[in-house]
Design brief:
Helix content is 84%, strand content 0%. By secondary structure, it is mostly helical. Helix 1 crosses helix 2, helix 1 packs parallel to helix 5 and helix 4 runs antiparallel to helix 5.
Length: 125
């Protein structure tokens, strides 16, 4: 139960960093500044989220770290109340997939928010 909750929280944190910071950056880079303006006018809470992006990235990173610790901690046997060993192995496999999707989304968000503009400026010199 703890692991699935941690998976969902880390995915939610990763998606929030993607929506607040990475998506607008990508849209502006692709020349869709008007789309970003209409997105912000339709969803005004994005401005607040964008102002506090440091906290969002910190909390999402901590949730991912906790989730990584839960998924990859060393343990002996798996106790599963539902469906025996096959169901446990399937759930474990899906948990790992969901975790790595979350890590990829978080990494993309970090890159677009903190590294894309300095990298572009450095390359233009």
């Amino acid at each position: 139960m703890r692991q699935s909750v941690a998976n969902l929280l880390s995915l939610g944190g990763s998606l929030s960093t993607l929506i607040c910071c990475a998506l607008p950056s990508v849209l502006v880079a692709l020349g869709a500044g008007a789309a970003v303006a209409s997105l912000v006018s339709a969803l005004p809470w994005l401005v607040w989220v964008s102002r506090h992006k440091g906290w969002f990235f910190l909390i999402a990173g901590l949730l991912l770290a906790v989730n990584l610790a839960l998924v990859y901690r060393p343990r002996g046997t798996i106790a599963c109340a539902v469906g025996g060993g096959k169901a446990c192995e399937d759930a474990k496999r899906w948990n790992k997939r969901l975790l790595w999707v979350s890590v990829a989304l978080y990494g993309f968000g970090v890159f677009m928010t903190y590294l894309a503009l300095p990298l572009r400026q450095w390359l233009e010199r």
